[in-house]
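User: As part of a screening pipeline, I want to sanity-check one entry by hand. Below is the sequence and the SMILES for 2-acetamido-2-deoxy-beta-D-glucopyranose. Please return the complex as structure tokens so I can compare it with the automated output.
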Amino acid sequence: PLRLDIKRKLTARSDRVKSADLHPTEPWMVASLYSGTVVVWNHETQVPTSAIHTLTSLNHSLLDLTFKTLDPLQVSLTARSVASLPASQVWQLGSRTPNFTLEGHEKGVNCIDYYGGGDKPYLISGADDRLVKIWDYQNKTCVQTLEGHAQNVTCVCFHPELPIILTGSEDGTVRVWHSNTYRLENTLNYGMERVWCICGQPGSNSVALGYDEGSIIIKLGREEPAMSMDSSGKVMWARHSEVQQANLKAMGEAEVRDGERLSLGVKDMGSCEIFPQTIQHSPNGRFVVVCGDGEYIIYTAMALRNKSFGSAQEFVWAHDSSQYATREGSSMIKVFKNFKEKKAFKPDFGAEGVFGGFLLGVRSNSGLAFYDWENADLIRRIEIQPKHIFWSDSGELVCIGTDESFFVLRYLPERVAAAQESKEEVTEDGIEGAFEVLGEVPGVVKTGVWVGDCFIYTSSLNRLNYYVGGEIITIAHLDRTMYLLGYIPKDDRLYLGDKELNIISYSLLLSVLEYQTAVMRRDFGTADKVLPTIPKEQRNRVANFLEKQGFRQQALAVSTDPEHRFELALQLGELELAHQLASEAESEHKWKQLAELATAKCQFSLAQECLHQAQDYGGLLLLATASGNAGMVGKLAEGAERSGKTNVAFLTCFLQGR
Ligand SMILES: *[C@@H]1O[C@H](CO)[C@@H](O)[C@H](O)[C@H]1NC(C)=O
Ligand SMILES: *[C@@H]1O[C@H](CO)[C@@H](O)[C@H](O)[C@H]1NC(C)=O
Ligand SMILES: *[C@@H]1O[C@H](CO)[C@@H](O)[C@H](O)[C@H]1NC(C)=O
Ligand SMILES: *[C@@H]1O[C@H](CO)[C@@H](O)[C@H](O)[C@H]1NC(C)=O
Ligand SMILES: *[C@@H]1O[C@H](CO)[C@@H](O)[C@H](O)[C@H]1NC(C)=O
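Assistant: Here is the complex for your manual check:
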């Protein structure tokens, strides 16, 4: 079975819907109603988004409509001719007579669709005889008849992405059939009376359904594409059931620009016996596991030869590639080592999800439990509902993403070992001190990867960010949903994939990440070694990071920006350097700032010079009188008079009794 999750995203009540289409990029659905109006719905906000247009001059019952891809705001309406024949006919464009006729239905055919994917040129038809027929139109034979609908079949659709056929009928149901086995997978009845149209969308899991009483959008299966990259830059993905691979290294010296689609040579690896919903490389890149249809198959990454297989809803690798775990149903976890089952257990609170990495994570309705891989001993239970868990390569840091925010934790294996040894501090919730919370960040992580102590991730707001030491740095704003594949240090680049299996990349310097990692570990020896490899133009970013982490001295050493350096010199009380920078900048404001600092530090001759440079006569007067310096008062009187500062000139003369 396919085990596709089916979620309802929009229910919109209206008059009878004759035809519907989903927008290629916006969250919009357009529906043409039998009554002659066209409504555009936003399925994110759940409200009609556009004014409702009434069409007057057309025969509405014959309207078919689609979003025009060229101008996304324009809806194109096309008259569709309805031939109530018990057969399907195929014409060559421009020809007056049909090339051929497919005969087989007993009553009028209402709808047909072509099968886009695969090597077989198939056609599907639905008719008033309540049957759906699949045709091989090269040899003009009916290869399958789908029986089940209890009334006239009104619409048929080969899903553009998933291996399914959707059929709608006047019996009020939409049926989901497997397009390879023709098995009935699901029957959907939303109680909106007769079904009139079904519309899938390339590159998306959303399907729009039109009924007598309105329209519905459903989402089928996973959002994320089945795609995985190993650490050497080989990317593998599944296009329907076909597995393909591209090698980033084979791009050679071709220039790569941030955010642009990479043109890659694609190699067919063969087809998979199950419909892959996920693909994951083992951490060492030697194997890939494909999961779907409630089963998994582990292949060699090189040749896609099957190495092991079994049933599982979910499959996760341990950090060391020699172990993995599967989840069967919502209670059973199995742990394997070297492809042999080592342990099977039922976690106390059930198993709704499983996570790989340094520890084995199991999610249940009551929270998350971490187990060690060796003996499946409970390490720690945490009250959290994780969506994703990402471990850093060293196993020291872990990011746990939830529906609202993400947490960064430090894992403390020494404490765990000590607690296990002494048997103290071990409660029914595991070892209290196993983790230390470093931070919580609002926002939803979609996909992520650690590089050193930097956590790079895509957010639900389509930002590409990274987190280091409590700080978020935005690398890019993405124009659509993208999924992180990984980071290749040699290229200084991050790679991301999208639903249509395009790959793009963004530059992110390894030296910067390494430097920041060293700083977070307070390892300034390493930081100093890395610093010369950071290009000049990146130094200021690093300096800002250092300052925010409280390392002003280091920030001052790294920064090349005179403004920032002056600020830092002031904060650090480095009067000499600040003086030098103020002289270089010839800025009155800087002299004033420095004068203030020099005064505070009782460096009166420096303060005097600064006030003089800043032409701050009021300040000079205060300094001269407060320090009882008659000579200075005398000089100030002359200077002030020359500069036309009569108030100060008057006061100084008055004080001197002149
Ligand atoms: C619309 O077209 C159908 C089929 O040709 C026809 O039966 C119907 O009378 C037309 N309706 C109007 C309002 O013109
Ligand atoms: C359909 O017939 C036309 C001639 O009428 C021919 O040129 C074309 O190749 C045919 N197409 C198919 C798909 O058989
Ligand atoms: C037509 O092709 C299908 C496969 O697409 C095959 O199952 C069927 O037997 C063929 N029919 C004839 C009459 O050749
Ligand atoms: C099914 O189609 C027939 C025409 O073939 C029509 O008479 C009948 O009313 C339709 N059934 C329903 C439930 O509308
Ligand atoms: C894996 O290979 C074995 C032996 O060739 C074969 O019997 C089995 O059907 C294959 N299974 C899968 C799931 O590919």
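Points to compare against the pipeline: The first helix runs from residue 413 to 422. Residues 107-108, 128, 151-152, 170 surround 2-acetamido-2-deoxy-beta-D-glucopyranose (ligand 4) (CB under 6 Å).
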